[in-house]
Amino acid sequence: xxxxxxxxxxxxxxxxxxxxxxxxxxxxxxxxxxxxxxxxxxxxxxxxxxxxxxxxxxxxxxxxxxxxxxxxxxxxxxxxxxxxxxxxxxxxxxxxxxxxxxxxxxxxxxxxxxxxxxxxxxxxxxxxxxxxxxxxxxxxxxxxxxxxxxxxxxxxxxxxxxxxxxxxxxxxx
Length: 173
Known about the structure:
By secondary structure, the protein is of the alpha/beta class. It contains six helices and four strands, in the order E-H-E-H-E-H-E-H-H-H.
C-alpha cells in the first residue's frame, strides 16, 4: 500500500496528492509492480482538524481511476471523525463512506459493529444513499419534508463537502 503522505506531511490539495502518488506509482512500476497490485491511501484527516482536507481526499479518490488505471484506493474511514464527539462519529463515517464509494473507493477500514453502516454498505438503505447523492449533486432538498435521520444525512453531507462550516453542533441547526 502506498500513502500520499510525504516527508513534508499530508499534501494540502489534490494537485499535490497527485504529484506525490504519480511519482511513487511510477517508481513501483519501474520495479515491476503493476498498477493492479498497488493500493493507495489518500490519507483522510479529521474534519475537526482540517475540513478542506476531507474534500481534497474525496476529490483525489474521484480522479484516481483516470489518473492511474487499475490502482485501488483504500482509507481508514474513522479518520474523518477522529476527535469529534462520540455521538457524531457514526454519521460522519457512514456519510463519508457513501460519498467515497460513489467516487470509486475500493475499500475501507470500517467499524463492522456499526449496524447502520453495514446496512448502508449492504444496499439495505438506498433512500439514505440517494439523499447523500442528491446533496452531493446540489439538488434542492426540502429539509422540512425529511425525517430527522434523513435531515442529519443531508446536513452531514454538506459539512463533508465543505458547504457548511464544521462545528460539533452542525446537526442542531
